[in-house]
Amino acid sequence: MKRKLVVANWKMNGDRARNRVLLDYILGGMPSGVDCAVCVPFPYLPQVGEILEGRAIALGAQDVSEFSGGAYTGDVSAAMLADWRVRFVVVGHSERRALHLESDDVVGRKAAAALGSGLTPIVCVGETLAERESGAAEQVLLRQLDALAAVLPSELQRVVVAYEPVWAIGTGRAATAEQVQEVLYFVRRWLARHVEDANQVRILYGGSVKPDTARQLFGLPDANGGLIGGASLEAQPFLEICRAAASSARSS
Ligand code: 13P
After folding, report:
1. Active site amino acids
2. Which residue has the CA at smallest separation from atom 2 of ligand 1?
3. How far is the centre of ligand 1, averaged over its atoms, from the C-alpha of 32 (Å)?
4. What's the mean pLDDT when you consider all of the chain?
5. What pLDDT digit, counting tens, does each position of 87-144 carry?
């Protein structure tokens, strides 16, 4: 798979005026040869969906309920997202795992709910610094991935996996290329045991990706793109990251 996927995760940022300006800039400079999605807070899905209508950037959300509907105050179902033509949804982000106590099983069920409504879940996995330093990183990743396989045996082929080491998120300290490739390869081998064609599943890296590190990270053998937080909130760095993805796909 040559084309890379670059996904902006705005997290809890933005307002209607800023969203429009940011997206106008991004749409004006988006290079060809890269797939792109923007995952925005729920209230802005209609606005951003309208701005992106017919354009080359896909609409994404940042979470989805594991349930299909009913008495779940504050939750948003996959069918509701699909109703707004959402294509991607981030599930199991480490911020939700940590702040909302989402377990591996919940994350698996959210991914299944997304797939059930025709959305592509971007499933985040990753270890904390303590887990890495104690040598438990692979065990943690395996646990997170296995929970997914338990829920989605026949549909795993359609997920996107994002490796986001918790210690690299928002810290300015991206994992080294070597560290990233080691884990991406680990994920690829895991996929090879669970899906028909592991090379067709996209694996992204996320965690302090910046324009100056993007090219090297996207050029790694098992990297199919990136999940971008802070650097997606301004047009210039985000576009540079998209250009890096487009050119690394060309040269691979
Ligand atoms: P930063 O790019 O700000 O480190 O965030 C990464 C992330 O959490 C994307 O989901």
Report:
1. 93, 164
2. 229
3. 24
4. 96
5. 999 999 999 999 999 999 999 999 999 999 999 999 999 999 999 999 999 999 999 9
Distance 55 CA to ligand 1 centre (A): 24
- d(CA 77, ligand 1 centre) in Å: 24
Tell me the percentage of the chain whose pLDDT exceeds 70: 99
Q: Retrieve residue 128's tokens.
A: 């904390």
Pick the residue whose CA is nearest to atom 5 on ligand 1: 229
Distances (CA, A) of 37 to 48, 104, 203, 225, 232: 11, 24, 15, 11, 11
Look at residues 205, 111, 94 and name the one whose alpha carbon lies nearest to residue 153.
Answer: 111
Q: Domains of the chain by range and CATH?
A: 4-251 (3.20.20.70)
**Cα–Cα distance between 174 and 252 in angstroms, integer?**
22
Residue 31: what residue type?
P
